């Protein structure tokens, strides 16, 4: 765990925009970065009929607030968590004038919230970097704990096998291991959607 935290602290200081969204290469500009955040927010949350757009949303792996800032004015409260303190520091600058946002650095396994306080939980381009299934399961259990009854968790998991030593590498899942993960953590599967040959979106309900 400490190694993963150290890795993301290093990457955040080196070039946070690129390591959050590498589509535009290492020279990605702040304008391109913000546009990508707005587009992904609209595509993945703003037009998703399975997600309510009110109450409290929890974003796991919020990074520097690329998508977080576009949730402002939509949800009553936004909570962002990230394993990197440097990412959180940059995110706070991005949303510094907003009073309905709370941002926390975490240990990567626990979420500093009370039980049953979140309406929606969301995570994109985060779980596919986790290096072992115990970390994934710990996060699923924490999300289940902080979600309200009938709350929805939308999360992207990796399905392709990659080198775990690469900065972007993480554990992969198939249909069987996904069902087992959800059973062990208490979630009911609402819907799944494959992303080409490398990932799968899950919509889960408490």
List keywords for this structure.
5 helices, seven-stranded mixed sheet, globular, Rossmann fold, 206 residues, alpha/beta
Description:
With 206 residues, the chain is α/β, with parallel strands linked by helices. It has one domain (2-205): Vaccinia Virus protein VP39 (Rossmann fold, 3-Layer(aba) Sandwich). It is built from 5 helices and 7 strands, in the order ααββαββαβαββ. The protein has helices at residues 2-20, 30-46, 85-94, 133-146, 175-185, and strands at 56-60, 77-82, 101-105, 118-123, 147-158, 188-195, 199-205. Strands 3-2-1-4-5-7-6 form a 7-stranded mixed beta sheet, sandwiched between helices. Helix 4 (133-146) packs across helix 5 (175-185). The mean pLDDT is 96.
CATH class: Alpha Beta
Rg from Cα: 16 Å
CATH-assigned homologous superfamily = Vaccinia Virus protein VP39
- Strand runs, count: 7
Strand content: 15-25%
What's this, in brief?
With 206 residues, the protein is an alpha/beta fold. 34% of the residues lie in helices and 24% in strands.
Helix/strand layout:
Layout: H1 2-20, H2 30-46, E1 56-60, E2 77-82, H3 85-94, E3 101-105, E4 118-123, H4 133-146, E5 147-158, H5 175-185, E6 188-195, E7 199-205
Parallel strand pairs: 1-2, 1-4, 2-3, 4-5
Antiparallel strand pairs: 5-7, 6-7
Helix pairs in contact: 4-5
């Amino acid at each position: 765990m400490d190694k993963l935290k150290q890795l993301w602290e290093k990457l955040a200081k080196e070039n946070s925009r690129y390591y959050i969204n590498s589509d535009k290469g290492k020279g990605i500009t702040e304008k391109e970065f913000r546009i990508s955040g707005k587009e992904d927010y609209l595509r993945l949350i703003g037009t998703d009929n399975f997600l309510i757009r009110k109450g409290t949303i929890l974003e796991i792996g919020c990074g520097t607030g690329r998508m977080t800032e576009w949730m402002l004015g939509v949800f009553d409260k936004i909570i962002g968590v990230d394993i990197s303190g440097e990412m959180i520091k940059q995110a706070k600058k991005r949303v510094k004038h907003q009073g309905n946002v709370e941002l926390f650095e975490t240990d990567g396994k626990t979420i500093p919230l009370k039980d049953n306080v979140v309406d929606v939980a969301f995570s994109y381009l985060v779980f596919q970097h986790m290096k072992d299934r115990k970390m994934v399961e710990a996060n699923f259990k924490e999300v289940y704990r902080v979600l309200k009854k009938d709350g929805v968790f939308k999360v992207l998991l990796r399905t392709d096998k990659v080198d775990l030593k690469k900065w972007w590498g993480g554990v992969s899942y198939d249909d069987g291991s996904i069902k087992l993960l959800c059973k062990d953590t208490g979630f009911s599967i609402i819907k799944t959607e494959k992303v080409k040959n490398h990932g799968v979106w899950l919509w889960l309900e408490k």
